[in-house]
Amino acid sequence: MKILLYGYGNPGRQDDGLGAEFVNRMEAWVKKEKINEVYFDSNYQLNIEDAHEISDKEIVIFVDASVEEVDDFCVTRVDAKKDVTFTSHAASPGYIYALCEQVFGKAPLTYLMHIRGYEWEFREGLTVKAVQNMEKALDYCQQRIKDPEKLMNPDKFLKSCNKTDIN
Predict the structure, then answer these.
(1) Domains of the chain and any CATH numbers
(2) pLDDT-based confidence at 79, cuts 50/70/90?
(3) Whole-number pLDDT of residue 86
(4) What one-character DSSP code corresponds to residue 75?
(5) Which of 18, 20, 38, 154 is packed most tightly, with the most Cβ within 10 A?
(6) Which tens digits make up the pLDDT trace of 49-60?
(7) Of 23, 16, 50, 2, which is closest to residue 141 (Cα–Cα)?
(8) Which run of H or E residues covers position 114?
């Protein structure tokens, strides 16, 4: 089973770099654990080309910093019905998913992990509280990657955001 972890955000804007740092740490952990078929990518923002990137995966986990007031982190399901916005500056996970479905005829099981961030100034480095949230998210994801059945079953991977409108 091919799994893609894709973090996005700007590491030059403090906690906006949570997605990229999450992916870096997961990649190091996967190598140490010698787990196969887990792939990694990160960028400042999602692009339409990412529809191709996810088209050959069974599971995709997008990871982004959240400005919403979630407890520490949460996991929501991404599908073509949710958040299919696209501007000249950014594409949403829902848009990438819908594009993958339309262009490639593929519909990987896709999630979005929202990690709570606090500071967004133009400087590098994550805040202490954001790192603590990311560490909880890392542990959560690692436990499930060790048991991929938990990834394949959304009921065992989704984690409530306390807000139903987060996509």
Answers:
(1) 3-157 (3.40.50.1450)
(2) confident
(3) 54
(4) E
(5) 18
(6) 999 999 999 999
(7) 23
(8) strand 109-116
